[in-house]
Design goal:
13% of the residues lie in helices and 37% in strands. The chain is built from 2 helices and 11 strands, in the order E-E-E-H-E-E-E-E-E-E-E-E-H. A hairpin with a 2-residue loop joins strand 1 and strand 2. The model has no long low-confidence stretch (mean pLDDT 81).
Length: 173
């Protein structure tokens, strides 16, 4: 039995790989927890100087590297990929340092991810521009497919009328 070496670990869409390309030990795993609901206010108050007034905290991740289920520190620099949604404008990352302060991360956007290198994991927050919610009043609700009916939209009534005709014939019989 040959143990397959993993050069990349992934959890919750976040990917981690070593910058030197060496594989992780087979008993290493990545644990990423979305703690936005619990930590958003804490991050907002602690990092208010780093967040522009046009921006807001979108997601907060707690990233851990585990060896046999126990949290360990990385043994070198890691390349970390945080997924970003298409609707996020001007996304930026900030993280909680070991001394308890927040700092911005110099990350680049690559294939739908914010990518950066670091030798520490922990609490990482994704911030992006606030987008005005237009509301759903000006959007067309439902679907429109005229198909063979050039006269307009379908009403959603797709009942098989032949079933009623057949049931009527059976009951009369």
């Amino acid at each position: 039995m040959k143990i397959k070496e993993k050069t990349e670990l992934e959890d919750n869409g976040v990917k981690v790989e070593k910058t030197d390309g060496t594989p992780f030990l087979p008993n290493m795993t990545l644990k990423v927890t979305d703690v936005t609901d619990d930590k958003k206010d804490e991050v907002n108050s602690g990092s208010s100087a780093l967040i522009d007034k046009e921006q807001e905290i979108k997601q907060v991740f707690e990233i851990k590297l585990l060896e046999n289920g126990i949290e360990v520190k990385p043994d070198g620099s890691l390349k970390i990929r945080i997924p970003i949604k298409e609707e996020y404008r001007n996304p930026t990352l900030i993280h909680l340092t070991e001394n308890g302060s927040y700092e911005k991360i110099n990350a680049i956007i690559e294939d739908g991810y914010l990518v950066y290198e670091s030798d520490e994991l922990g609490l990482v927050s994704l911030i992006a521009d606030v987008i005005e919610d237009k509301g759903k009043d000006d959007e067309v609700q439902g679907s429109y497919y005229p198909g063979d009916n050039v006269g307009g939209a379908l009403t959603g009534d797709i009942t098989n009328q032949m079933m009623y005709v057949g049931m009527g014939c059976i009951s009369l019989g």
